[in-house]
Design goal:
- The complex is a heterodimer of chains A (773) and B (199).
- By secondary structure, chain A is of the alpha+beta class.
- Chain A contains 28 helices and 13 strands.
- Chain A starts with a helix and ends in a 14-residue tail after the last helix.
- In chain B, strands 1, 2, 3, 4, 5, 6, 7, 8, 9, 10, 11 and 12 form a 12-stranded antiparallel beta sheet that branches.
- Classes of the chains: A alpha+beta (773), B alpha+beta (199).
- At the A-B interface, helix 6, helix 7 and strand 4 of A face helix 1, strand 2, strand 4, helix 3 and helix 4 of B.
């Protein structure tokens, strides 16, 4: 008796400790994360690749690109200016830019300093190989009224080098500068689109920021639409906001739906308000899960929360185990019922934890997190169900409704009748045939895109923005390394040549590479050398009236112009777009990113640039998709391993034979679910496989329940039915999720549960009642 | 420097009426009356560093319906054509369109604003002030936007029946003077000119 007094108090103390930790964890805001990349394995150990990836992703997570469109340019400009003002005032953004207030003085300075270093490859070649043509072009440009206009006056640059640099800069195709306002404008679909760029203070992984930005945008739309204007926006933040909204919607459905229906089921079955206390272990489980998850990972991903909310259905099984004994145990008292079911409960906890923890050994942080959350949650729920709940139910004498038992009895009878006509062996053959035919039709599909539900309207907008502006960033990029800047630039140039071929074929819209903005030290020296010989060819210029003395002076200046380093070149205003590409110097050398635009076929990239020294294509999504496929195999191995572990665990209480039987049934159930996916035309994804991995663990529980047969076949079946029903209620709801990964997971678990329930009665030998261990 | 030519046609599309005896409207009507205007031009580039301006000469043909032909004859020969599609330069194999996305794109836009009669665009770019009468008028354009102010201080256009002179003063101290003192109107293009526009 004393232990029954001591247990609830000890547990309450533990609960208080957990509550205190939770309070401390949440006091600085919800430790939630929505970063998709936090869910996938850090595929690379290479620090430089990691740094490059962060560099490439950063703008996606911090920048908002908005197109303000109106049929009339002045209205579009006015609206863009108004919006920029409001957004700047919102305090969410580091800067909001709709108008370029270019300081031309700084541009002039950079052009003059970079006359040798920034000359394009084509111009360098002409200067070296056809100096006469170089001079002839300069003559033309001096008199050409249409050559575009040079920022640097002719007398400061008689050779016209700055004009060449200006003209060779790659420019976004569809965007032009509105000289009056300084705004960038694209014209499409009968509208003038003003480009507005905003950079947030935080990132998309900040939980509040994406929603705030999405709200600002919605406000802006409400203002713009009555004026006949249209807003198009593209940003990783908007996807994050949509993801968060969807996650909270789904947590509400899954959590709320499961909670309500389980409470209703408890009331209907046990006809006591006190029976609702069975939900206390569930809440405790959630608390334990989140505390451990935040403690281990520093945060909890929203996807963990969505999947974790399905734990409700599993956690409620513990109290149900002994509550359902009220059909056979008369009178039912809480502590005796607990004592009677404790071995089964403990085994069930052990097998479920093995199942969940098997998920933790996959290389996916997402699953590790879910596994930790679930295992901790189950332990919490178990402890609560064993230590606290019996005390809460101390005075209650359960007199459950008889109808559930009648249903279970009817099912048991029906099964008996079936087995009299068709022996189990024949049924097994039929089931195996069903499995074989289903598996035949099963196809696998793995794509990182299944992990996010991208709302179609966001995708359409992003596509419209890409089409109108011609700005189509791709997630693939190149990382180029060299021992020193010279080698790096040689490699960049080799890569550029290959990429130019792709561009000419129309497979690539464009790319940004440091070699476009500055030449390597050696190339700068070559240019300087070529310039030195130019005096042999410039007579025609002199005849036009260009002073020979001026030419000579400038040539000398050019010779003494200090070589420009990458850092110096990138510091100037013209190099803004290239600045993020430079990764700088580390112990092994120097490195740079080459970013790509408008890629139509990623596999071509690999073909085209394979074998280039020091050039690495970083294609994270492609690698992840491959990794998914590889993980499927290791997941299947894990599944078998976890089954072996459970087999060993169960061999002690049930003997090897019983243990084999209990483990074989869940495996068969998993096989049937796989086959059903095939029959239903649903693909097998990594997530459905994980779902099945989990279902094996849960269904071992049912098999144990049926094997033990406490209170007779019908009562055991009823216990299994209640447990399966509550679990199914929560996982079944996951199948409705809009995130394909979550939905696949829910679908696989739902199917698995149905088959586990159907097969569970075979866990017991038919005639001989099992012996209570 | 394409602005010079832009300004040419600028005068064709001038702008909302001002309360003046001789209004921008009147000027626009007067200048756009002939279908074709042509004549010789002399361009003087005054550079601070040179005692003498850089001189170039040639012929121009401005056709209301087509665009502008700019035929540079001395000190080197080079033909240009500007129309709704952009700027083209003639080489031995024919007209070659110049990339519109070059550094001069912003200037092109200004030019096209002028050519296409985008008066709203021009008025945002410039303060306009007109004086004189139909036989002797002066139009002064002062850039409004910060960006343009960093490039040139003002543009002066003057003329009578046709535009006679355009002077562009750059912020850096250089200036360009374009003189078209012998222009005459025509009812239609000659065959060669027509084929120059159509090819």
């Amino acid at each position: 008796m004393s232990i029954e007094r001591w247990l609830p108090r000890g547990f309450l103390a533990l609960l208080l400790v957990m509550l205190a930790i939770a309070g401390w964890q949440w006091q600085r805001g919800a430790p939630l994360s929505a970063d998709l990349m936090a869910l996938v394995p850090g595929a690379t150990e290479d620090a430089l690749v990691k740094r490059a990836e962060l560099r490439v992703q950063e703008p996606l997570n911090r920048e908002v690109l908005v197109l303000v469109g109106h049929a009339e340019r002045p209205q579009a400009l006015a609206l863009a200016e108004q919006l920029a003002g409001q957004w700047q005032a919102s305090g969410l953004f580091e800067h909001v830019q709709w108008s370029l207030q270019t300081d031309l003085g700084a541009v002039r300075e950079q052009l003059l300093a970079g006359r040798v270093a920034m000359l394009s490859a084509a111009d360098r070649t002409q200067l070296r190989e056809r100096p006469a043509a170089f001079i002839e072009q300069r003559m033309q440009s001096l008199f050409d009224p249409f050559a575009g206009f040079s920022l640097v006056p002719a007398q400061d640059d008689w050779l016209g080098l700055t004009g060449r640099i200006q003209n060779s800069q790659p420019k976004p195709v569809n965007i032009e500068l509105d000289t009056a306002s300084g705004a960038l404008i694209a014209q499409a679909d009968g509208r003038q689109w003003v480009l507005l760029r905003a950079r947030t203070l935080g990132t998309a992984f900040d939980m509040k920021l994406p929603l705030l930005v999405a709200e600002l945008l919605a406000d802006a739309r409400r203002q713009a639409e009555p004026q006949g204007a249209q807003l198009l926006a593209a940003s990783g933040l908007l996807y994050a906001a949509a993801g968060q909204q969807q996650a909270s919607r789904e947590i509400t459905w899954v959590g709320g739906g499961a909670t309500l229906s389980i409470l209703l089921l408890l009331l209907l079955a046990f006809r006591r308000w006190r029976a609702l206390l069975a939900f206390v272990p569930v809440l405790t489980g959630m608390l334990f899960g989140s505390v451990v998850c935040v403690a281990l990972f520093g945060h909890m991903h929203v996807m963990t929360l969505v999947l974790g909310s399905s734990l409700i259905g599993v956690a409620v099984d513990y109290p149900l185990h002994y509550l359902s004994k009220s059909w056979s145990l008369k009178p039912w008292r809480s502590w005796p019922a607990v004592r009677l079911t404790l071995p089964g409960l403990s085994l069930s906890l052990a097998t479920s934890c093995i199942g969940y923890l098997a998920l933790a050994f996959t290389p996916f942080p997402a699953l590790t997190q879910i596994a930790a959350f679930s295992a901790a949650g189950l332990i919490g729920a178990y402890l609560c169900a064993v230590c606290l709940l019996p005390a809460l139910l101390g005075q209650v004498e359960l007199k459950p409704a008889q109808w559930p038992l009648r249903i279970a009895q009817a099912l048991t009878n029906w099964r008996e009748r079936l087995l009299r006509r068709v022996p189990s062996a024949v049924l097994l053959v039929l089931v195996l045939l069903f499995c074989a035919a289903g598996l035949w039709q099963l196809d696998t599909r793995n794509d990182i895109r299944q992990w996010v539900a991208s709302p179609p309207q966001l995708q359409e907008q992003a596509q419209a923005v890409a089409r109108i502006t011609g700005y189509q960033p791709t997630s693939q990029f190149y990382l180029v390394r060299g021992a020193d800047p010279e080698q790096l630039f040689q490699r960049l140039q080799a890569l550029s040549a290959k990429l130019d071929e792709l561009r000419d074929l129309g497979k690539l819209k464009g790319y940004l590479s440091l070699s476009q903005i500055v030449a390597s030290p050696e190339q700068q020296a070559q240019t300087r050398q070529a310039l030195a010989h130019l005096s042999d060819y410039w007579q025609p210029l002199v005849e036009l009236g260009v002073p020979q003395a001026g030419l000579q002076t400038q040539l000398q200046q050019l010779q003494t112009l200090p070589p420009l380093s990458v850092e110096e070149a990138l510091a100037g205003p013209l190099a803004e777009a290239w600045r993020p590409l430079w990764l700088g110097q580390d112990a092994t050398g120097v490195a740079a990113i080459v970013s790509l635009q408008g890629l139509s076929d990623a596999s071509l990239l690999r073909l085209q640039t394979d074998g280039l020294d020091g050039v690495q294509l970083v294609d994270r999504l492609g690698e992840l998709n491959q990794l998914f496929a590889a993980t499927q195999i290791s997941a299947a191995e894990l599944k078998l391993l976890s089954c072996a572990l459970i087999l060993v665990l169960l061999a002690a209480p049930f003997g090897l034979r019983g243990s084999l039987r209990i483990v074989a049934l869940p495996l068969l159930a998993a096989l049937c679910s796989l086959a059903s996916l095939g029959w239903l035309g649903q693909p097998l994804t990594l997530f459905s496989l994980f779902g099945l991995l989990l279902v094996t663990a849960i269904s071992v529980d049912y098999a144990i329940l049926m094997h033990e047969r406490i209170g007779g076949a019908a009562v055991s079946l009823l216990g299994t039915l209640l447990a399966a029903l509550t679990t199914w209620l929560s996982f079944g709801l996951l199948a409705l999720s809009q995130t394909p990964a979550v939905s696949n997971f829910g679908m696989a678990v739902s199917l698995g549960l149905i088959f586990s329930f159907l097969l569970a009665p075979w866990a017991a030998a038919r005639e001989t009642p099992a012996v209570q261990p | 420097m394409k602005r010079l030519c832009a300004l040419f046609t600028l005068a064709l599309s001038l702008l909302s009426p001002l309360a003046q005896a001789f209004s921008l409207d009147d000027l626009q009507r007067q200048l756009s009356a002939p279908a074709v205007v042509k004549g010789p031009f002399i361009q003087e580039k005054h550079l601070r560093a040179l005692p003498q301006p850089l001189l170039s000469k040639g012929q121009f043909v401005l056709a209301r319906e087509h665009g502008l032909l700019w035929l540079l004859q001395t000190p080197l020969r080079q033909d240009y054509r500007i129309d709704a599609n952009g700027i083209a330069r003639r080489d031995p194999s024919g007209w070659q369109r110049l990339p519109s996305a070059s550094a001069g794109a912003e200037q092109n836009r200004l030019f096209f604003a002028v050519l296409q009669g985008d008066s709203a665009g021009l008025k945002r770019d410039f303060e306009l002030s007109l004086s004189g009468d139909a036989t002797h008028w002066q139009l002064q354009l002062t850039p409004r936007s910060l960006l343009l102010k960093q490039i040139f201080t003002r543009i002066d256009i003057s003329g009578g029946q046709f535009v006679e002179q355009i002077q562009l003063s750059e912020t850096q101290g250089d200036s360009t003077l374009l003189r078209m003192t012998d222009s005459h109107g025509a009812a239609a293009l000659s065959d060669t000119e027509r084929s120059d526009f159509v090819d």
